[in-house]
Amino acid sequence: MTATHLVWFRNDLRTHDNAALSHACSLAQNGDRVLAVFLWTPEQWDQHDYGTPRRFAWVDALKTLEHRLAALGIEFSLLESSDWQHGVDDLMALAKAVNARSLSLHREFGWDEVQRDQYALACAQNAGIDRHVFEDRVTWDPSQILTGQGEMYRVVTPYKKAWLRQLADVSLSTPLPEPKAIGPAIQTRVHYPKVQSLAQVELPLNETAALIQLDRFIDLTVTDYQTQRDFPSVDGTSKLSAALANGAVSLRQCFSAVLQHPKRDHPGLQTWLSELIWREFYHYLLYWRPELAKHQPFYSRWDAFPWRNDKARLDAWQNGQTGVPIVDAGMRQLAHTGWMHNRVRMIVAMYLVKILQVDWRLGERWFARSLLDIDFASNNGGWQWCAATGVDAAPYFRIFNPVTQSQRFDPEGNYIRRWLPELSALDNRQIHSPDAVPGYSKPLIDYQQARAETLALFKAL
Ligand SMILES: Cc1cc2nc3c(=O)[nH]c(=O)nc-3n(C[C@H](O)[C@H](O)[C@H](O)COP(=O)(O)OP(=O)(O)OC[C@H]3O[C@@H](n4cnc5c(N)ncnc54)[C@H](O)[C@@H]3O)c2cc1C
Fold first, then answer.
1. How confident is the model at residue 300 (pLDDT cuts 50, 70, 90)?
2. Which of 131, 176, 243, 264 lies 20 to 30 A from 328 at CA?
3. What confidence score (pLDDT) does residue 2 get?
4. 326 and 431: one domain?
5. Which of the following is catalytic: 111, 140, 302, 307?
């Protein structure tokens, strides 16, 4: 009986620069077959608060993956089960049925992910299946990036220096090409669960779209990135976050695009590199502190903060009805498109935590349910940064004034007008902080008073 080499896809939904896939194909050169598998586990994702947008992004990427694999002569199977425990059991049953000789996969971080993989690899070992595990979520093995005292980094700047030293010492390997076909192209017809779409999807979600977007961004936009990235009405960022989250594009492909660029020292490219390193830093933290996935703050400085878990405040924030235009515009962009500009994410998050005094974990959960690009490590890092509970976070007394931020980063109100058409007739001065406008909410609370109260509460701790 022909042997089968299994590739277990997770958040690496691409055929280029995919070490696990390339490895399985190299093992199948003697006529063995390669079978790609994805576990569809809705109850598991409910536990992780992954909402419809994230599932929509997976389906989009999986459909493209299925076609690309079929062209390489590789079958693809979507295994539906409730959670990872059952999913792994189903995967092992399939492995037995197809006479699997090897299992290739990429390592993932996070509490449940680590448990899942330990269980799966132990089951595979018991079944006599060879196991091949590769790094993909980060560029360098986190256990190798340590301070002079042999400890983990807790501040991004020295981490970035260590990251760059590693780059100078080891140098980044070039992205792997798509593997050669292992046989003639095949026909496949996988059934995908129905997932509701968003009103507008503005991000590339699958490999084909992501590679085009990466090229476009590097050719046209990246050299203005350092000056444009903070303005939400400008299309000045890569919009690759969802593709990086589900692995339709790889980190190495992004880093290589910068490092091989003739202007690699240009401030635009260097700033983009730094943002990618932030992403990497948050994954590094999750490696070292997997309990972050259990809703624990990195530092428990503010455990005693009397969060107001006030449903009316949370509802107004979620629905874009706080009466603060830049906050409401951001929340409506999120609801319509499953994405929000980074500057606006910081503004809305700080507003929820430090002005409405709602527990940051409720905001984190809402983002997880609403974002196409939800990535546990980056989301948790972003929220803990805003809440001052995280590593290298904004100090508790730094509170963004949403109106000042709005005047500075959306000076002509174009972003606000796009998402709040009821304010479109206001002039550029009024639009950031309007007086009563029919059809638009009045401010939920008084900013200055709430700010003073929050600072007093923090100080008291
Ligand atoms: C409260 C909060 C929650 C966030 N949640 C997420 C999330 O769930 N998923 C997510 O990918 N990003 C998250 N971010 C980071 C950032 O907002 C998005 O990565 C960025 O807006 C995506 O747009 P882009 O792809 O155009 O980014 P670009 O500006 O083009 O940056 C390129 C890539 O670098 C990474 N990146 C950029 N900025 C950051 C950052 N501050 N932290 C971590 N990675 C970064 C992303 O992968 C991004 O795609 C969050 C930020 C905050 C403040």
1. confident
2. 243
3. 84
4. yes
5. 307
Cα of 241 from ligand 1 centre, angstroms:
6
Both 355 and 426 in one domain: the answer is yes
Asked, for residue 41, whether it belongs to a domain, the answer is yes
CATH number of the domain that residue 14 is part of = 3.40.50.620
Domain limit, last residue, from 238, 255, 290: 290
Q: Count of residues for the chain?
A: 461
- Nearest ligand 1 atom, CA 348: 1
pLDDT in tens, 336-346: 999 999 999 99
Q: How many domains does the chain have?
A: 3
Which residue from 399, 404, 398 is spatially nearest to 433, judged by alpha carbons? 404
Cβ burial of 176 (10 Å; 0-12, 13-18, 19+) is: middle
| pLDDT for 312 beyond 80 | yes
Residue for token digits 């085009």?
212
Interval 14-19 mean pLDDT: 98
Residues 319 and 419 occupy one common structural domain? yes
Single out the catalytic residue among 11, 43, 178, 342.
342
Both tokens of 331, joined, read 């929340």
For ligand 1, atom 26: residue with the closest CA: 239
Nearest to 325 by CA among 397, 201, 429: 429
pLDDT digits (tens, 9 = 90+) for 355-379: 999 999 999 999 999 999 999 999 9
* Cβ of 278 less than 6 Å from ligand 1: yes
Alpha-carbon separation of residue 324 from 86, 355, 423, 443 (angstroms):
46, 12, 11, 6
- pLDDT band with cut points at 50, 70 and 90 for residue 29: confident
CB of 383 sitting under 6 A from ligand 1: yes
- Owning domain of residue 77: 4-137
Say if 181 falls within a structural domain: no
Q: Is 306 a member of any domain? A: no
